[in-house]
Amino acid sequence: MHTKLLKILFLIFLPTVFYSQTASFYSDTVNGCIPFAVTFTNNSANGVSYSWDFGDGTQSSLENPSNTYTQAGLYSVELIVSFANSPNDTLIINNYIEVFDAPTADFQFLHSGTFCENDNLFTFTNNSINATAYTWDFGDGNTDTTTNPSHTYSSNGTHIITLIAQNNYCSSNTTMPALNIDETPSITASVSDYFSCDSSHIFNFTAASSPSSGMSWNWDFGDGSSSSVFNPTHQYNSSGVFNSFIIGTNNNGCKDTIYLNNIETFEVPLATINSDLTS
To answer: Does the structure show a pLDDT above 90 at 272?
Structure first.
C-alpha cells in the first residue's frame, strides 16, 4: 500500500520537477553613447512567451528583441519567461546597460600675423562637449592632443583642420573650411663692394628671388636713403659704417628680408706740403 502511494506521488510531481526552467539572456553590448542600439539574445529554453522591460519605458514580447536607448543613464533589464509546463521565471539584471552622452566636436580659432609661411599663428579654442580626449589634425602632417593648441604653418598650400573629440566609448569629428597659406619668397642680395676709401664711390646692389615673378623691393642703404628699384646703385657721400638690407614682397604680401654685411666708406686725407724756402 505504501509503495503504491509513493508511486502515485512521484508521478504527480514528476512533470513539475522535470520541466522546471529559468529565464536567461545576454546582449551584444552593454555600454555606449546615445543613440545606443542593443540586441538582446534570449537563452531561455522551452519558453512559450516573453515579456521584456528595457528600463527606459520600452517593452517587447519578441523572443530576441532590440532596443535603442536615447538618453544617458544606467538601465536595468527584466525578462519574464512563460513556460508550458513550469511556472514563469523572471530575470532582472540591475544596471545592465550604461549609456553615455555622445561627444560633439566643435572649435574656433584666432589668427595673428599673416597667412604666409612661418609668419602665422593660429590659436584654437575647443568648444567640444561630453569629451575627455582630443586629436587635432592641422592638415599639414602635424597633429596635437592638447585641448587648446596653437599652430604655425611652415608650408604653403591648402590645409583642412580636423578635430576628433572622444570619450571612453565613442567619438565625434568636425572640420573647418580649408586655410590657404601663401608661399614666402626666398631672396638673395649682394653688393659690389663692402669697403671704399672714396665716399663718392658708386655701390651696385643686386637682388634675386625664388619665385621671381610678382615681387616688389625695398632697399634700405643704412644712411636714411632707400630705393624700390630691383638692382639699384647708391653713393654714400660720407664716411661711416652702414647697415643695409632689402625686403622682398610678393603679390600675396609675403616677405623675406636679407641683411648685408656692413659697408664702410672712408675719406682719404689730402696730403699737403708746406715749404719754407729761404734763399
So the answer is: no
Helical ranges in the chain per DSSP H: 2-18
Q: Spell out the residues 6+ positions from residue 243 whose beta carbon is closer than 8 angstroms to its own.
A: 222, 259, 260, 262
Q: Is the pLDDT of residue 231 over 50?
A: yes
Q: What is the mean pLDDT of residues 187-201?
A: 94
- For 83, the enclosing helix (H) or strand (E) is strand 73-83
Neighbours of 5 (CB within 10 A): 9
- Which tens digit of pLDDT belongs to each residue from 119-172? 999 999 999 999 999 999 999 999 999 999 999 999 999 999 999 999 999 999
Q: Which grid coordinates are listed for 217?
A: 623691393
Longest dimension (CA), the chain: 184
DSSP states of 151-190: E---S-EEEEEEEEEE-SS-EEEEEEEEEEEBPPPEEEEE
Region of residue 76 (phi > 0: left; psi between -120 and 50: alpha; otherwise: beta): beta
Q: From edge to edge, which strands make up the β-sheet containing 107-113?
A: 107-113, 120-126, 150-151
The grid cell for 267 is 675719406
- Model-level pTM? 0.72
What Å distances lie between residue 120 and 57, 109, 156, 247, 255, CA to CA?
A: 54, 12, 11, 18, 12
Closest CA to 39 of 115, 106, 97, 91: 97
